[in-house]
Amino acid sequence: MAVAETKKLSKKLEELSKLIRAEIPWEPVGPTPMPDIPDIRSWDMRLLKTYQPFYAPFCDLCCLCTYGKCDLTAGKRGACGIDIATQQARVVLLACLMGCSAHAAHGAHILEHLIEKHGRDKKIDLGESITIEAPHIRTVLGLKPETLGDLQIALEYVFKEVGHLLDSCHTGQEGSALDYESKALHAGMLDHVGMEAGDIAQIVGFNYPTSVADTPLVDMGWGAIDKSKPTILVSGHNPATSTEVIDYLREHSLEDQVEIAGVCCTALETTRYSDRAKIVGPLSRQLFFLRAGIADVIMTDEQCIRTDTPQEASKVGAAVVACLDKAMYGLEDATDMEADEIVRRMVGNGEHFAILDSAKAAEVAVKVAMEIAPKRRKEWLAEEEAIELAKKCNDCAMCEQVCPNLCSIGAGITQLAKGEFEPLRVLFNECIGCGKCEEECPRHVPIFRLMQVAAGNETWKARAGRGPIMDTEIRTVGAPITLGTIPGVIAIVGCSNFPDVDDVADMVEEFAKRKYIVVLSGCSAMVAGMKKDADGKTVYEKYPPDFEGGGVVNVGSCVANSHITGAAIKIANIFAALPLRGNYEVMADYVLNRVGAVGVAWGAYSQKAASIATGCNRLGIPVVLGPHSAKYRRLYLSRKEEDDWQVMDARKKELVETGEPSPEHLAYVCETKEKAMPMIAKLCIRKNDTPQGRAIKLNHYISLYKKYMGGGLPEDLHLFVRRDADIPLVYKKEVRAHLQEIGWQPREPVGLPTYIGTYPSKVSIDAVIH
Amino acid sequence: MSAVLPRHRVNVLTGIKSARLVEDAAECANYIQKAKRPLLVIGPLLLQSQADGKLLLEYALDLAKAGGIPICATAQTRGKMVELGVQPDCVYDAVEIVNALKDPDWKGVRKEGNHDLVMFFGIRSDLGSQGLSTLKHFAPHLKTMTLCKHYFPHASYSLTNFKKDAKWQEFLESLIAELQKGG
Ligand code: SF4
Ligand code: SF4
Ligand code: SF4
């Protein structure tokens, strides 16, 4: 190496060491602190060898530059030379970058807000049960963050990498789909760092619950809102303003007089701050709720807040305050205006404003809500009236053609006209609340109003988000998870683009009952609570809130997803005592081969969901997606018997051809809930399972298969039975007979399975032995 | 052929190469009979009954029988098939079978080589459309056909958007009759 180059390298290393305070020896610094794009690439390529990208182009063309449009169909290349696979990978990377940026920028805004309040040196303290406060930041950066200021170091690193990755999307650069995938995996990993920094900041700065499992049960559903009171709706993800509203209400003793309700993740954030705040519901209920006119003032912050909020609000005479620069809607920026002047104009002229000072926004929102509420009508549609309105429908089915969830909504309306409510009730559960149908209807049937009679006024309970999993819990469950006796950790996460809202509660119930650990976040955490059993109980009331077999845990909003993946890292670090500092590959390899965790993003719709899932994948966690998610364009699928299932046995230092597709896929789409159930159970299988653990996992796989797939045994069961001891007791006879019939041969389980040693890596095989 | 819009706008074609519209059952049967190794992939929408009480799945089974076509059962369709006394030739989920099909060297369901015509029937239209897109782009070695009641531009051959289910059922019945006649 040239002298100049060595110098440059060591200079970079020097700077990096300073940033992560490498001299503090809490752990030795591993091979990849603050990795750049190529640093973990060989791990990615190893993953992508077994889990090859599967592309389903959503568009055959590319229109990104003025050479185009280019038709990339079936092998044709664009004017820049790109082919369809690489183009798909590029779009996936762009999606991941948007998602990662959304979280990291949310984190950066919150941090700025909190540093303004508490100073850079405000200590990070997550309570007595959490000492590994930031598993992602520790693993990826090699930094142990001690203050709010340290979290900024993490975010600055994320933004730097995002810049490089975005650059690579420019026309005429990267020419390999696999390299774009590696970059997308990099973006996904960064996303978990950004989310973690953001949520730690929130917990510390807003005093959210931490080191506790049984957070309060909060009210959910529009029925929980007292319509006689002024109502403020907070919408989006960033709690900087909603927390100010609560402070304002507290300081002015108005908590009993004004309702504060949230939709989407801000709802989850706000209920972490005050258990008197209410959750309206997931994103899919946003437009429905806006049009119902219950909210007097709508405060938008960022992500998933709809781009037509001011227009929708005006229709029902509600007022809008846009609180963040991400979405200013073309509104006048009133940040420097006197609060009373803003209130006067909002009340008098029906104007909406952007107010980027959160304290001022809070004051204005409360004052405006209190003034306009008494003048507004908030009536729920009566059934007779609904029937009359539905009679306008002439069954033309135009609405059905534009429904992104393929609902037969017109049929529901025609049934309603005949006085039948049930079909519309069923459809309301499938509706993702986009409003396309009503826009399309040539007869102007007010479909959303009609849905009021299907929606009812039921209320539910959801457990407030609790943040990170406690170290103490990890110590207890580490062994049973890696041995397989807790059959898996099922993380049901993310957005509300569900085939059917009820699916989520059904999944939670199915797996909690079977003593899996069920973890929830985001809109999924809300809808999990929107179904009651025969005794009128939701899953939150039925199952304990602990991170243990049979527990149902709400970690919080989207950014709290980092705590789920963080828990997987903590198992490697706390339970298996593997050092994590700058040691990403070892952590990911451990999780992939030994931690039976599966992500389920059943209603994923956003770019954030793409980056969260891709980050899970790099860390070795497979993700099951709902049917719409084929529109993400890319999955990571294996080919079962035809793929490379070779691992190293780290103890014997021998390569082993296991032939066992565990986990079988990394990013997978299921068409139905029925198919998803056994698939989720199967994806929890790991090569590390003990015979006892494997028998438990196979017991659930077989029993879910029988229950949902119509009896018999799974076609691929033989691939997961290593020895007779792996066969669950209840099915011994049936499985033995089947295995004998197909000529199954036993094989040795692998003592310490690892990918390390099967591909070129800086990591030595000894690094995975604990 | 004039442009046909898919029934669900989320599946609107955003490219140039679109499916040949097949409106005649004899023509449809002809494509199937010309194929050396056809495959029928069935999905969960077939578990719904029609107005006359007939299960859509029954059309699929009749069709497979008439044409001697192996069946790949996706999602939870296998259970109902078995109930009706027919074992599927293989069980994969939609994305898995598409993933296998795009490999020209795949041995196929009967281990006789990859299929040359794949018919999709009863898969959710957005997922189906995406799977067909995969095959259109990455599986030049095979042709695809859809038997659902809507137009699928990403297929090689597609039925039209049927306004009335009865017309569609009529088409399926004629197709089965054509196949029974043999080629
Ligand atoms: S980026 Fe490439 S493929 Fe896209 S329009 Fe430009 S030249 Fe064509
Ligand atoms: S609002 Fe609901 S029913 Fe209407 S088009 Fe959107 S998802 Fe479909
Ligand atoms: S578009 Fe309007 S009139 Fe037509 S079916 Fe739908 S609701 Fe009825």
Strand and helix layout:
The complex is a heterodimer of chains A (770) and B (183).
Chain A: H1 3-19, H2 41-50, E1 52-55, E2 61-62, E3 70-71, H3 84-118, H4 135-141, H5 148-167, H6 177-206, E4 217-220, E5 231-235, H7 240-251, E6 259-263, H8 265-273, E7 278-281, H9 286-292, E8 297-300, H10 309-315, E9 319-322, E10 332-333, H11 339-349, E11 353-354, H12 358-372, H13 383-390, H14 398-402, H15 409-417, H16 422-430, H17 436-440, H18 447-455, E12 460-463, H19 471-483, E13 489-492, H20 502-513, E14 517-521, H21 522-527, H22 539-542, E15 552-556, H23 561-575, H24 584-594, E16 597-601, H25 607-618, E17 623-625, E18 634-637, E19 646-649, E20 654-657, E21 667-669, H26 673-683, H27 691-709, H28 732-741, E22 753-754
Parallel strand pairs in A: 5-6, 5-8, 6-7, 8-9, 9-11, 10-11, 13-14, 13-16, 14-15, 16-17, 17-21
Antiparallel strand pairs in A: 1-18, 2-3, 4-12, 19-20, 19-22
Helix pairs in contact in A: 2-6, 3-5, 3-6, 3-25, 5-6, 6-23, 6-25, 7-12, 9-18, 11-12, 13-15, 13-18, 15-16, 16-18, 19-23, 23-24, 26-27
Chain B: E1 20-21, H1 25-34, E2 38-42, H2 56-67, E3 71-73, H3 77-83, E4 90-91, H4 94-101, E5 117-121, H5 125-138, E6 143-146, E7 157-158, H6 165-181
Parallel strand pairs in B: 1-7, 2-3, 2-5, 3-4, 5-6, 6-7
Helix pairs in contact in B: 1-6, 2-6, 4-5
Bound molecules: iron/sulfur cluster (3 copies).
One iron/sulfur cluster is lined by residues 62-65, 67-68, 70, 78-80, 82, 171 of chain A.
